[in-house]
Specification:
Strand order of the largest sheet: 1-2
Number of helices: 2
Structural class: alpha+beta
Oligomer: single chain
Distance between the termini: 30 Å
Helix content: 10-25%
Strand content: 25-35%
Largest sheet: 2 strands, antiparallel
Order of helices and strands: HHEE
Number of strands: 2
Length: 108
């Protein structure tokens, strides 16, 4: 059964209502939701990463050498949540569930 067919079944079961508000309440109570459409906003961000090089001082203290790197990070246009790097730009926002496949600014 397609999503359209399921929706038609729900719509056929709606009791006679007086207002659109009552109809919306009925639909939401039966699992109908509104899908948010968003897009990824890519921004540069600096991270501190270990280089894999470790030094040992004279007093036997280990020092891990780190360097600053710049990564491109996706930010959700709906909720503002972000991933760790460009590879985190998925078809849906993991935080708010917005559909990121297209929208106002197609950066995906």
């Amino acid at each position: 059964m397609t999503k359209r067919e399921k929706l038609l079944i729900i719509l056929a079961q709606i009791p006679t209502v007086q207002t659109l508000s009552e109809e919306a309440d009925y639909l939401f109570a039966h699992g109908v939701t509104v899908a948010e459409r968003g897009y990824w906003i890519f921004k540069n961000r600096t991270k501190l990463m270990p280089t894999g090089i470790a030094k040992v001082t004279e007093d036997k203290t280990a020092i891990v050498v780190k360097k600053h790197i710049t990564v491109t990070v996706p930010y959700c246009s709906i909720c503002g949540d972000h991933g760790d790097d460009e590879g985190d730009a998925m078809p849906f926002c993991p935080n708010c569930g917005a559909d990121m496949r297209g929208g106002e600014n197609e950066n995906t």
